[in-house]
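User: Predict the complex.
Assistant: Input components as received:
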Amino acid sequence: MTPSTGSGTPPAAGPAPGGLATAVIEANALTKVYPGGVTALGGLTVNFAPGVTGLIGANGAGKSTLIKILLGLVEPTSGTAVVLGHDSVTGGEQIRRLVGYMPEHDCLPPDVSATEFVTHMGRMSGLPATAARERAAEALRHVGLHEERYRQIGTYSTGMKQRVKLAQALGGDPRLLLLDEPTNGLDPAGRNAMLELIERIGLEFGISIVVASHLLGEIERICDRLVAIEGGRLLRADTIDSFTRASQTLLIEVEEGLAALHDELVRRGLRPTAYQRSLLVPIGGDGTYDAVRDTVADLGLPLSRMEQRRHQVEELFRDPGAAGSAFADPAREAADVR
Amino acid sequence: MTVIEIKNVSRWYGNVVAVNDITMDIGPGVTGLLGPNGAGKSTILHMIAGFLAPSRGTLTVHPVLGQPVPTWQNPDIYRSLGLVPERDSVYAFLTGEEFVRSTAKLHKLASTGAATRQALEMTDMAYAADRKISTYSKGMRQRIKVAAALVHDPEILLLDEPFNGMDPRQRIHMMELLSKLGAEGRTILFSSHILEEVERLSGTIQVMVAGRLAASGDFREIRRLMTSRPHVFNVRSSDDRALAALLVGRPYTTAVELTGKGLQVRTSDFGAFCGQIAVLTRDHEIALRELLPTDESLESVFGYLISSQGS
Amino acid sequence: MSADTSIPTTGGRPGPAGSVIHDLGYRRYDGPRLGRAQIVRALAWHSFRAAFGFGRGAKAKIIPLVALVALCLPAVVNAFAMSKGQPRVVDYDTYTPALRDLVMTVFVAVQAPELVSRDIRSRVLPLYFARPIKTLDYPLAKYLAFTGACLVMLEVPLLLLYGGSIANVHGGAAVWAQTRALIPGLLVGLMWALVLAAISLFLASLTGRRAFATGAVAIFFLLTFTLAEILLQVEGQNSGPQTAAVKGGPGGGPVMVHPLLYGPSMADKVSGLFSPFTLLEGVRMWLGGTNPADNVPAPGAFGVVDALVLVTITGLCLYGLAARYRKARLA
């Protein structure tokens, strides 16, 4: 797997770097218990910094409840949520003025064109008629819909429909985008295109984005930070880089002669262990790299991979104590996303 | 050893050809059936499971014990085969235990209780077996479906998009379960359009594009077979520029680019490059820090297959 | 298929030869943002247009426009008759009851789902509620829009009637007489619009399937009307022989009434409670309308009950409509 490039440059528009950036979302002991006893959120405390943040792990009740609370549509049982400086209970309307939401499910009427729909939604966001029309056209251009925008949405492919959903969230000039599973139903090419688009929005448009996804690869790719929620509580919140930091192990792959390489490395005192179709060697210092290189060269073996292993976000979800887990004791307390 | 034999199978609906002349052999272990939406994966799975007849060709199941049997109109295959369909096909008002037990009864198993217990334990659902399925999360529903498909201890397990909508922890559990079942010698065939999932789980993949079989085997070997595409490597060393100069002088190098973070090397001869890189760097005292084939991911391979087959 | 924001720009400043690459990057919006009231107005206007099939294509306009034309026919016929010297044949406040009942039933049954069921079916509601409006604003806008649409359906024929009559009478006094007769008719039309819109929107909001919604609304109005009529018939037959005959029973024939009661029996009046149309008729007559039409007996003082029931039903439907969307917002 190619290494993640994770963090991009901070958004052009936004709080000045240096010093604490103001969190775009602050949740404090956020709890929601539904009648019937279902606890969707049980004391969630976490801050979302500006930039692109991945939200993962909160399937089912937790995630949708969190989104509704953040949009000011549902009151928490206890605790508070502050979005872009507004309290979710008292300032719901202001929040909804500043936030663009892209739901996970199908939500587009089939018998209107994308232009008409995004324009109408712009008016529903409070834009005057002309501005709504203009911003709709711009938003559709930014998401990459061209002549097809004049056709009815019912004729669109899934990829195009996802773009329309994104366009209606952009039309109202949001400060924050909440994207719920934006690559849902897309094939690899479509997924790629959507991720590039989101990356671009985060980097160039100066809009903070929260991407809820259950695909770790996606999150590692486009997000600067990650908030992992489990059982209605915070599991971990940190930068992607901290999740994917390097470990002290070197991974080596050769196209043939793996056993011979193993034995020779042992002979030279490097303590290799087998791992799937490659070898892992603990890094004792810079000399380890040279020793490995020399061994491979001396044996005349075709070297096809040599990399310092990185941890993966996935390890967070492996059971504590599992082999290779870097998170034997996941922190349960609140963690500010730095 | 072939467990599922598919020979020249096609399936059409009027003018729509869902599956177009597919021949593949599936053996024990975990095999991933891969392809974009609408490629025909579900159709093939349903034909293997005997729910659909092929318009042409044959699908045959070779159980370890017993005779090879065609899949269509042959209830015997259900002795050795379990299917976990994509749709939510559970009776939500039953408890997990009741649901699995009812499937056991349908299979006319000798001791439904023991089989049910074992299936529930295998899928780690014993703790929730007494709750109604309507109270289950999505991941739990998937696991109970798997339990019901396993209750008769089948040799073959077919799963249609089993990871749909699961969160990471549920997905890891399911992958571990399927790995374990595959390691036991069962034949596991699962379909997915999410490469991340397939890459982790299966050694062998079968890639379908627009109803045709585009490639099968191990995805890295498949990549090696794509000789018309230059391989791309990312290299980091103690002296990138010097290494670049050296590489440019070699016949197997078609291009070298100095990116900010190292070198990107395109080579037309994968074998020659790999064979030479260690020697080259050693002989010129350049420390090698990283060597990564960039497009060996399943995603790249898949992308190439789609684009080349689509062009 | 990505936008071309990768083209380097000079920030819009012209180069040495005067050429320039403009920055087509994303732009913020600095203009005015409208408040809730204007958003509601925009949604209401959008829905009002949808009630007549505008914004949907030609097929969606057929039923509403045919219905409107059908309702206008009596006015046209009247104008024709008056031009031949006859007096006005159609009353303003009753218009042509049977036609109006039928056409309005069809109109609200087919068009109410266009306003509310479509949005439920396409699951677009979360997008609305994620906007700076209150939950109540959505049903409010829909109600305003549909009341307006029903008003058009009901008042345009009346205005046509008026226009046709004016054209055929002479003298200020005659015109004034027509005008005086028109006003109550318009008010009755308003009453109808408020009630029918509330009931049909509420029923339609219960399902996302337009066919079901249309069926539910149509069946509701037809069944209740039939029920009221049947009860009236039954009553008429059950009265004993010591009663006096009073005109205005079902079918225009005599209904047997106890001589001590002025007007129809209590049972007759109660039967009028069972259908919105009969309720509307009852309130109309109670408020001083013209002769009973549509086989509904004049309620007399009982009209208060009619009015109360009508208001209650309308109120309940509006409450139900609001509650429906409160629930939908959380879904």
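The longest helix of chain A spans residues 188-204.
Let me know if you want any component modeled separately.
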